[in-house]
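Async update (no meeting this week)

Hi team, since we skipped the sync, here's where things stand on the single-chain job. The sequence we agreed to prioritize is pasted below, unchanged from the tracker. I ran it this morning and attached the output directly underneath so nobody has to dig for it. Comments welcome in thread, and please keep replies under the output.
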Amino acid sequence: MNRSTDGILTQRPVYVKLISRKTADMQQHTGGVYLKGQSMIKAAAFDLGGTLVNYPLYWRPLYRPALEKAASDCNIALTEEMFTSACDILMKYNVRETPREHEVTSDKIFTEIMSAWGCQADIESIKAAFFSFFNADAVPFPEAREALLYLKQAGTKTGILTDAPYGMDNKFALQGISDFSELIDFFVSSVDAGYRKPHGAGYLKLLEHFAVSPDEMLYIGDEEKDVIGANKLGIISVLINRSDIKKDFGQTYTVNSLIEIQRIINAAQ
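Output:
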């Protein structure tokens, strides 16, 4: 996609045009917004990591300190052999190394680890310590709260659909959005859906919960799978691209900041 001379937001298939009154002719209405030629936008859903929250990109280099924290918090003497066996299990469920469509639960993963360690430690305590290590470095993007607040004030329902790393439980994932959790109406993970993106199960849960049609919802994400999954169901796809590298995954819109979502749903400027 290309940038226009006076802005960043672009729309397919005319990539160089900035969304404005001339190109979108959008109008505000109670309970959502209309895009000319499209249905009323009643809901906006987001990916989590890389979109709303900046998480560690690669977990593999952090296995050791995370496992050491989990073992320490649960009074387990972690040997090198135990560390290696746990890493082998985590790697088996690392989707960057071994992609999968069906989701697994964190209980399954950590039960395997505890079995390999020959321990009877409380699984919930091990998971809490392990995931808290990664959540400690989770930082919401600066504009996330403002963008969500705008949507709420516009009467637009908000949701999150995220692929859970290592089957992370929702209660741990929600710790990363405590800064703006009150602005989220519905949260669904790949564990809830049973499938990872771009499978449509999670998107369908969003549509069902909000009781909207696909062309009445935006889905905003930072990866190709986010766009593919939304497009398959006819959901309006928005790619958040904070880099200088052009990316074209077939998305309807591209933004460089979450604030620019306002320009998709409100051209009154």
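Quick observations from my side:
The chain has ten helices and twelve strands.
The first strand starts at residue 10 and ends at 11.
Reply here if anything looks off.
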